């Protein structure tokens, strides 16, 4: 007999394969059956699906740090110009 949390643990372990449709039919139907009766896992899988969709969307986010660094450097130079040495 499995404890109440065992199925949830399985879902957490299988969610990646589940979303990639990489599970064998028996396991997939077991996961689906559990999602139908467990709100927590349903939400979890839904979040994972969205995250996977964002990560798999292709274009990586533009890298902003260089621009930010340039601005910070420019500001530091500007501030140094205006701050009398003490
Ligand atoms: Zn669950």
Report what the structure shows:
The chain has helices at 6-19, 25-37, 39-55, 65-82. The chain has 4 helices and no strands. The protein has 86 residues and is mostly helical. 72% of the residues lie in helices and 0% in strands. The radius of gyration is 24 Å and the shape is rod-shaped. It has a single domain, classed as Arc Repressor Mutant, subunit A (Orthogonal Bundle), CATH 1.10.10. Helix 1 (6-19) crosses helix 2, helix 1 runs parallel beside helix 3 (39-55) and helix 2 (25-37) packs across helix 3 (39-55). It binds zinc ion. Residues 7-8, 11, 34, 38, 40-41 line the site of zinc ion.
Main sheet characteristics: none
As for the CATH topology, it is Arc Repressor Mutant, subunit A
In whole angstroms, how far apart are the ends? 76 Å
Proportion of β residues?
under 5%
* CATH domain class: Mainly Alpha
The number of helical segments is 4
Number of E-type strands = 0
Q: What is the topology?
A:
Layout: H1 6-19, H2 25-37, H3 39-55, H4 65-82
Helix pairs in contact: 1-2, 1-3, 2-3
The structure holds zinc ion (ZN).
Zinc ion binds near residues 7, 8, 34 and 40.
Q: What attributes characterize this protein structure?
A:
single chain, 86 residues, mainly alpha, Arc Repressor Mutant, subunit A, binds zinc ion
Kindly summarize this structure in a few lines.
The chain has a single domain, classed as Orthogonal Bundle (Arc Repressor Mutant, subunit A), CATH 1.10.10. Helix content is 72%, strand content 0%.
């Amino acid at each position: 007999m499995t404890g109440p949390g065992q199925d949830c643990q399985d879902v957490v372990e299988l969610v990646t394969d589940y979303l990639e449709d990489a599970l064998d039919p028996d396991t997939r139907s077991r996961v689906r059956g559990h999602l139908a009766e467990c709100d927590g896992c349903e939400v979890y899988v839904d979040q994972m699906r969205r995250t996977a969709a964002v990560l798999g969307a292709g274009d990586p986010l533009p890298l902003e740090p260089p621009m930010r660094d340039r601005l910070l450097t420019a500001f530091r130079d500007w501030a140094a110009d205006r701050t009398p040495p003490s």
